[in-house]
Amino acid sequence: MKYQVNKAVVVGAGTMGAALAAHLANAGIPTTLLDIVPFKLTEKEEKKGLTLKDKDVRNRIVDDGLQAAKKSRPASFFSSDQQMLVKTGNLEDDFEVIAEADLVIEAIIENLEIKQDLMKRIDEIRKDSAIIATNTSGIPVKDIAKGLSESFKGHFLGMHFFNPPRYLKLLEVIPTADTLPEVIEFISRFGEYRLGKGIVLCKDTPNFIGNRFGFGTGAFALDFILKNGYTIEEVDLVTGPIVGRPKTGTFRLIDLVGIDVWDHVGRNLAPLIQHDKYALPFLEAEAPNKLIAEMVKRNWLGNKTRGGFYNVKKDADGKKTFLHLDFETMEYVEPSKPRFDSVGVAKKAESLKESIQTMLDGEDKAAKLIQALTYQGSQYASVLIPEVADTPKPIDDAMRWGFGHKAGPFEIWDMLGVQAIVEQMTAAGFAPADWVLSMLKSGHESFYQYKDGDIVGVYDVSKEDYVRIARSPDLLLLKEQNLIKKNAGASLYDLGDGVAGVEFHTKMNAIDADIVEIMTEALDRTENEFDGLVVGNEADHFSAGANLFMVVMAAQQGMWDQLEEMVRGLQDMNMRMRYSPKPVVIAPAGMALGGGCEITMHGSRVVASGETYIGLVELGAGVIPAGGGTKEIMRRVVNPAMRIPDMNLYAPFQKAFLQIGQAKVATSAREAQQMGILSATDRIVMSRDHLLAEAKKEVLHMVNTGYAPPAPEMIYAAGRDMRGALEVGAYMFKEGKFITEYEEKIAQKLSYVLSGGGLSKAAWVSEQYILDLEREAFLSLCGEEKTQERMWALLNTGKPLRN
């Protein structure tokens, strides 16, 4: 049977269910969100004279859930356009929509009986090809389908997303013994390609893999912290980036998850793992459970109640101070900023391996905490095999993709040396599982098998040997491509099939002369030797913009000719891409800011990751876009409107002015299309892993369909009257104290360029005309002391200065 997902239903409009519906919509799938009918009226509904029969009342729970998803921060939806794909209904009046659904995901209360009752109803009306999934985090999947039809069981499995589902990559797929192999295969591919997830196939064991390991080690950590008198500040200082974990550390993460959720998962897990002598004692430990219960009782649930392990205090100027909970007094106290010698050394380490090793070698309080967490985490990971997985890989994948760790427990173990860590953890009272000792004794010195530094195999406990790690044949990895040329800033590759590729690799992929040099050679070679070009990379971010250090140093030293040459070089490179006779496809992901945004806008086409954060942010550095960004916004936002007879002249210019002047950044590729940064013909790819491969496919498609470059386009410049109107707007912003006096000056420069400089009346001008105005404005602002102050602030603090 050939499966497809053209319509979906999510049952349960809580935080997870509504966010799931949003992410299905992000993937372009029309989705219906269902929930129960309220049992009673609210006071507000009673005052309106409504009854339990009114549709607004009957859909109140589901509508409230969807509204919460629309307002959530970080955003659940890519854009407001995606919101239109989600409809709401209730489980009494609208249940029949399930009969048309290709995929139904249940995300209701963690109660087996209620889930079973729902599945019985679904089984009665589902179509034969419909796949039914549960998002349960702990109830055995097989029990939920008990007693249902064979067809239902064959099309039923667990799809455990991690919250928020848009942002966390992990999707645990949990088949039962009855799930058809083709259903498992389809959902795994659908999850990876359509939803952009990292798939971990799990056994149907309590809490599967991510939460089993996460809560087994988390319960130990909380118990150890309380027993040894650590403060919240001390813990979060050391359990963050220096050991390869998110900046949230331990307690900010629990605040983010929700103390009530932590309590719920822990309490549900304990009865299910009475056999687990390594985690159960800590899940049932008195002090942590007493603390969590008291916080739940006080409604200190974390970020959702604005008070958990942390609480925010604002002073008269609105400046935030993060207070933290004192475990002894149960009161919030001011930060004390603890310091440890081991942490100071670890922060200077050049690699994660060095950083963790520093903590394991240390002797102070912070080091002792990391030693305990590392050794217990290694022990617990080992004893979970083969119960939850046959190899270390699913556990490592789950911790990286679901919890944001840089490396999983076995990857860290390999990094530090398996034998050495075994000796240390055993001495500390955390002996590993017997299979680890057997593995070492048989001559296998690591959990993974490596070739030229890359992982190619993993140790399988049941086979007592390495097994090959299967890789998607669709991936395009730059390290496997033929390198043509490389300098300090970028590399040029032959990607095969007549396609060239450019990768940036400066710090944050900031654009400098080295990148321009490689890009120029790439365009030369593409014209003569290749059919097309891909510009992208495998880093977290496409490009954070121009190299500010080079710009501000040149400005302060009065190197105006060199600075102008630098800007002109970027403009010329971008224009050459725009009119290249061969297709140039840009593949941004993560941040594509300032110059990175300008490069993106000048490609023949863009194949963007859904999670692309793109915008012209130059105002934060005290300048305006000068690599063609201002010109492109005029071409994309102003030009189309000006071709409409009797169009309101001010509206499109206001949009362009505010977008650049407020340094707006699209929070997704979809939103970038709404803003005009990306076009409607640009493609959006959900899977970051497959972005480069899809960009290459796009080049080949454009070649095969007879690509030709666009005809030169004139730009509409509105002239003196528009300049005046925009400057009045900037003045009013300043008078209202929305912008500073210097920001008004920058806005005047922007108005000058948008209006066409000194034009007395509206005119269609060449792209080069606007580029020259951009460059002139940029250089003049670089000479300003306040602009240089802004640039240094960004370089030193990473935050914009509002001077």
The counted number of beta strands is 26
Overall average pLDDT: 95
The biggest beta sheet reads: 8 strands, mixed
Instruction: Work out the count of structural domains.
Output: 3
Number of helices: 34
From the 3D coordinates, which CATH architecture of the largest domain would you assign?
Alpha-Beta Complex
Residues in helices, as a percent range:
40-55%
Structural class: alpha/beta
CATH hierarchy, class of the largest domain: Alpha Beta
- Strand portion, in percent? 5-15%
* Fold-level CATH name of the largest domain: 2-enoyl-CoA Hydratase, Chain A, domain 1
Could you name the ranges where pLDDT drops below 50 across 5 or more consecutive residues?
A: none
Strand order of the largest sheet: 3-2-1-4-5-6-7-8
Family: Belongs to the 3-hydroxyacyl-CoA dehydrogenase family.
Domain 3-hydroxyacyl-CoA dehydrogenase C-terminal: 208-311
Organism: Candidatus Desulfolinea nitratireducens
Catalytic activity: a (3S)-3-hydroxyacyl-CoA + NAD(+) = a 3-oxoacyl-CoA + NADH + H(+)
Structure description:
This protein is an alpha/beta fold and 803 residues long. The protein has three domains: 8-201, NAD(P)-binding Rossmann-like Domain (Rossmann fold, 3-Layer(aba) Sandwich); 210-468, Orthogonal Bundle (N-(1-d-carboxylethyl)-l-norvaline Dehydrogenase, domain 2); 478-791, 2-enoyl-CoA Hydratase, Chain A, domain 1 (Alpha-Beta Complex), CATH 3.90.226. 46% of the residues lie in helices and 15% in strands. It contains 34 helices and 26 strands. The strands form six sheets. An eight-stranded mixed β-sheet has the order 3-2-1-4-5-6-7-8. A seven-stranded mixed β-sheet has the order 15-16-17-18-19-21-24, sandwiched between helices. A three-stranded antiparallel β-sheet has the order 9-10-11. Strand 12 and strand 13 form a beta hairpin. Helix 13 crosses helix 15, helix 31 packs antiparallel against helix 32 and helix 32 (741-754) packs antiparallel against helix 33. The protein is globular and about 80 Å long. The mean pLDDT is 95. InterPro entries: 3-OHacyl-CoA_DH_NAD-bd (IPR006176), 3HC_DH_C (IPR006108), 6-PGluconate_DH-like_C_sf (IPR008927), ClpP/crotonase-like_dom_sf (IPR029045), Enoyl-CoA_hydra/iso (IPR001753), NAD(P)-bd_dom_sf (IPR036291). Keywords: Fatty acid metabolism, Lipid degradation, Lipid metabolism, NAD, Oxidoreductase, Signal.
